Amino acid sequence: MSDLVKRAKTFATSAHQRIDHRRKYSRQPYEVHLKSVANLVKEVGGSEEMIAAAWLHDTVEDTPATHHDIEEAFGAKVARLVYELTDISKPSDGNRATRKALDRDHLSTASAAAQTIKLADLIDNARDICKHDENFARVYLGEMAALLEVLGKGDAELMRRARKTLRKCLDKLGISSLHPSPRLDRQEQALSTLGFSRRRVQRLFSEAFTAKDIAEPLPSFDGDRPATGVRALMEEAGIRVAGVRDRGEVIGYMRREDLTGETCLDHSRGFSPDQQVYGDANLSEVILVLSRHDHCFVSLLNAVSGVITRTDMEKPIVRMWLFGIITMLEIRFTELIRKHWPDESWVDKCSPARLAKARALLEERQRRGAQHIELVDCLQLSDKSYLLAQDQQFLRDFGFKSKSQADQAIRAMESLRNNLAHGQSITVQDWPQIVRMSQRFFNS
Fold it and tell me: Which residue from 58, 136, 184, 179 is spatially nearest to 401, judged by alpha carbons?
């Protein structure tokens, strides 16, 4: 194993382990999947850059690492492969079918090396999904068949294996048609169960909190200016990224640390489609971009004029937005408990210590004159989630495979809420939860 591949394996494994990322059905550590994909690529003679990218192919999509992190650690070739393998669609692009079509178009233009890695990814995922989830397999196998039609540049042997895997899965499940019947996705089911109107919630949060509210102006420099001089100006002003102008128009961006050549234009990077949002984009779109890139560029009047980084996620507007989502969830958790266990029949399922704390809080709030308050209102968020996690319908609606998985997700949400309430930083420890929670609400 080359040094590059070893470093990629360590980087990817650590990145997924830090967020306790596991395979959806078996709950095995996620590196089991990464290893399978890397081994398939290696078996057909993939280069060390391809094998490294196979280990890293889900890192940007699923962990806090960005494309910039990959490029800094492994170079432009590996970073380009990872970019080609990362979905570019955003929640605002439409439903699942529309987004998958956009991602398929993105893959259709990918290099032969990237398409080879994607074939390996499809083979391993299809085996897993076919074994554990017949309902979703009907959707996934249809998407897989459509992808195989555009991956013709990939390795011929892996294409043969992929088509064989597809046929075996279809035969095993007795599926004669690859056109799934219409159904709600898990997020839609979950919101419907909680009494939310998805469209109403999306409209409320989209209109009240947008990219232009938190973006900072993007300074820009003419492309023919000396790079070293501009770097000195950026260092003095504390600017890390700036636009590059050509004939008065911003055509790309440059990073301060890159400015070592002759002119700014020598270091200009193009704005990739999945790195830009319009000024009225909702914050969930911004978060999705920042889960993949270090910078989210904001367009106003059809020109890039603003930039957002993860640091901007600490701004009061974003914190209010996140706290609002958590508050809405907790309110609905309370309603679900009332619905499933009327007349406080849930008390037998709660630990004596937690119940005693709730009763003490109820007495205090009643002493202070609180009206129309019940014991369930005084439970902690973790207590409410503990009760609901015992209900199998709740687990299914929210896409949890087990009670422990639900408990872990709620603990992460509670950590985020506590850090929001106490003014603590949220962009380091809580970033994976921010990404998951925002996409759960707004990915439709």
Answer: 136
pLDDT (tens digit per residue) in 132-144: 888 888 889 999 9
Which residues are known catalytic residues?
61-62
Joined together, the tokens standing for residue 426 give 């949220």
**Within-domain flag for 209:** no
Residues 156 and 74 in one domain: yes
Cα pseudo-dihedral 252, 258, 259, 265, rounded to 10:
-30
Residues 110 and 131 in one domain: yes
Contact 34, 16 (CB under 8 A): yes
**Is there a contact between 259 and 227 (Cβ–Cβ < 8 Å)?**
yes
Q: Does residue 415 fall inside a structural domain?
A: yes
Nearest residue to 281 (alpha-carbon basis) of 92, 67, 8: 92
Which residues, in sequence order, are bridge partners of residue 253?
Answer: 243, 269
Query: Is residue 148 located within the same domain as residue 295?
Result: no
3-state DSSP call for residue 209? coil
Residues 6+ positions from 14 with CB-CB distance below 8 Å: none
Helices 198-208, 316-340: axis angle to 10 degrees equals: 160
Of 121, 154, 173, the one marking the end of a domain is 173
pTM for the whole thing?
A: 0.76
Report how far residue 105's alpha carbon sits from residue 99's, in angstroms, rounded to the nearest whole number.
Answer: 10
Query: pLDDT per residue over 33-75, tens digit each?
Result: 999 999 999 999 999 999 999 999 999 988 999 999 999 999 9
Phi, psi dihedrals of residue 247, rounded to the nearest 5°: 55, 40
- My answer on whether 377 and 405 are in the same domain is yes
d(CA 371, CA 337): 20
Cα–Cα distances (Å) from 266 to 138, 248, 303, 360, in that order, read 49, 17, 21, 67
Cα separation of 63 and 436, whole Å? 10
296 in the same domain as 326: no
DSSP β-bridge partners for residue 308: 296
What are 267's two structure tokens? Answer: 């270091």
Same domain, 76 and 222: no
**What residue type is 318 in one-letter code?**
V
Q: Whole domain around residue 225: which residue ranges?
A: 215-310
- Across the beta sheet with 241-246, the strand order is 220-222, 241-246, 249-255
Contact (Cβ atoms closer than 8 angstroms) between residue 77 and residue 113: no
